[in-house]
Amino acid sequence: MEESLYNLAFERSVLSSIIFDPSQFDDFDAVLTPEDFYLSAHQEIYRAMMSLAHRDLPIDEEFLRKELMAKQKFDERVMVDILTANPIANTKAYVQEIKDKAIKRHLLTLTTEIKRVTLEEELTGTDVVDLVEKKLYEITQSSQATDFKDAPSIADETLAYIEEMKARGDSVLVGVDTGYAELNKMTTGFGKGDLVIIAARPAMGKTSFALNMVQNLLDKGKGVAFFSLEMPAEQLMLRLLSVQTSIQLQRLRVGDMNPQEYKQLNDAVDKMRRSKLFVDDHGSVNIHQLRSKLRKLKSRHPEIELAVIDYLQIMNGTGGKDRHLEVSEISRGLKMLARELGIPIVALSQLNRGLESRADKRPMLSDIRESGSIEQDADIILFVYRNDVYLYKEEKEREKEAISAGKEFISKYVEKEEEEAEIIIGKQRNGPTGHVKLMFQKKFTRFVDRPTFGAAQIVYESIDMKPAVMNLDDENVEKISMPIIPF
């Protein structure tokens, strides 16, 4: 390999600097990986340094020798070369040079891989492009993924996670904040790598519910990517501004505001200018295009913590497949992308109209269009349900029938400023199912937590002490099974 792709003197100097001043290792550990070193012996020495540091052992010649000899990786000549190399003061420039050359080597390897898959593998052009983009993303992120994780590393990472959770105290939130207290309690937030489906019939407010969660994250300085396949970005912004200002959406659309409300609007617009919201409102996108766009955006803006797709059934398939196969490809692709990027992906979904014929119109998993693969791939499935939507429809039907029969119609339906809404948890891979009650403010297309009255207590379903939550102020108390957390 050409010398322009490695510098052994730089590698020796960096390793020498760590041995003579181990306190620097944390700085190196945050940037360098063993694979960034060209010489395999240097890789093994750096890997041994990582092992010693993570076990709080000294990083010196004796401990390194012992660690390497135990793995039969010790090379006396290489160690002498490192110990005789001059430690460096300006390590940043040396590390950057090592990192830069490693990237070039990875890219050179990738060109060979591209040639192989193009000529030897029976892949479509789109699949090859997707593979290349994925590899490029891994290179730019300095991915350390391996085929397997060994038991010690898994155990250490799990213990670190438990200690982090313990340090939070009584907080129920583990993942991304949903913006709703009771929903956070039941889900502990959306986890990294989760595929979350929000499903509802038209007019139930699934887009509004998703936007309310988005607004909550933006208010906390988090980044959000939003793929709007149904409405332009300006309409999304109008909804967000209505939520922020409490100015009716319809009045915002026509500019019907008094001076005080205009000031509120300008303040909200200034706030949104500073937010980390990224919207793609091209109405036509397939899973490959979405994956490519989100990878690029995440690499440029690592602060992005959530991606939303509105909505799943509008996404295009690839290759002219049967629609059920296309939806399966899309849902699986979204799940894998969520894991790859380490963020939750929220996909909105329509429901079959068949539920309209049931007496109880609360959605079930089987009501999701092309539900098989979606139900399988999703980690969490939430249904948005507002009974008032059906009450209003029934009232309109009665009015139509009365008019057609020439009878007087007296409306019994009273339109409310706030309607009760249910968020039904139809599936949760790592938690309970059940429902959370919210209030929906129609004028602002805003879901809010219900005011809490009375006390809440833990009840137990059986002798095995599985806890369930019961709100004493509910008319119809619903017990929700909660998992035991071992200590």
TrEMBL record:
Protein name: Replicative DNA helicase
Origin organism lineage: Bacteria, Pseudomonadati, Campylobacterota, Epsilonproteobacteria, Campylobacterales
Catalysed reactions, as listed in the record: ATP + H2O = ADP + phosphate + H(+)
Keyword Hydrolase found: yes
InterPro entries reported in the protein's UniProt record: DNA_heli_DnaB-like_N_sf (IPR036185), DNA_helicase_DnaB (IPR007692), DNA_helicase_DnaB-like_C (IPR007694), DNA_helicase_DnaB-like_N (IPR007693), DNA_helicase_N/primase_C (IPR016136), P-loop_NTPase (IPR027417)
Recorded GO MF terms: 5'-3' DNA helicase activity; ATP binding; ATP hydrolysis activity; DNA binding
Role, per record: The main replicative DNA helicase, it participates in initiation and elongation during chromosome replication. Travels ahead of the DNA replisome, separating dsDNA into templates for DNA synthesis. A processive ATP-dependent 5'-3' DNA helicase it has DNA-dependent ATPase activity.
Start and end residues of each SF4 helicase domain: 169-454
GO biological process: DNA replication, synthesis of primer
Organism: Sulfuricurvum kujiense (strain ATCC BAA-921 / DSM 16994 / JCM 11577 / YK-1)
Coiled-coil features, chain-numbered ranges: none
Keywords on record: ATP-binding, DNA replication, DNA-binding, Helicase, Hydrolase, Isomerase, Nucleotide-binding, Primosome
EC number: 5.6.2.3
Family: Belongs to the helicase family. DnaB subfamily.
Cellular component, GO annotation: cytosol; primosome complex
Keyword Transferase: no
